[in-house]
Amino acid sequence: MKMSMKLTGEGLTRALRRLAHRAAEAGEEARRASRLKEKARLEAQERDDARRRV
Fold first, then answer.
1. Annotated region Disordered: where (predicted)?
2. Which among 2, 5, 27 has a CA at the least distance from the CA of 14?
3. Distance in angstroms (rounded) separating the CA atoms of residues 31 and 28
4. Chain CA centroid to CA 10, Å
5. What is the DSSP code (8-state) at residue 9?
6. What percent of the residues of the chain are helix, what percent strand, and what percent coil, each to the nearest 5?
């Protein structure tokens, strides 16, 4: 399905803002996932270290 759109002026501005907003949300979600993954890795490493000490 091919769509053709002519965006000018306000329509183009609105479309670009929506696109930028979606890109920012995707970037934030990726950063959040990365932080959670790193936190889980550190917790697992601490558990492993604690087991080795016992």
1. 23-54
2. 5
3. 5
4. 28
5. T
6. 80, 0, 20
Distance between first and last Cα of the chain: 63
Tens digits of residue pLDDT in 21-31: 999 999 999 99
pTM for the model stands at 0.59
Which DSSP string do the residues of 22-46 spell out, in sequence order? HHHHHHHHHHHHHHHHHHHHHHHHH
Confidence of residue 11 (pLDDT cuts 50, 70, 90): confident
Q: For 42, what's the count of Cα atoms within 13 Å in the CB-facing half-sphere?
A: 6
Token pair listed for 26:
């995707």
What is the identity of the amino acid at 44?
A: A
Average pLDDT over residues 25-38: 96
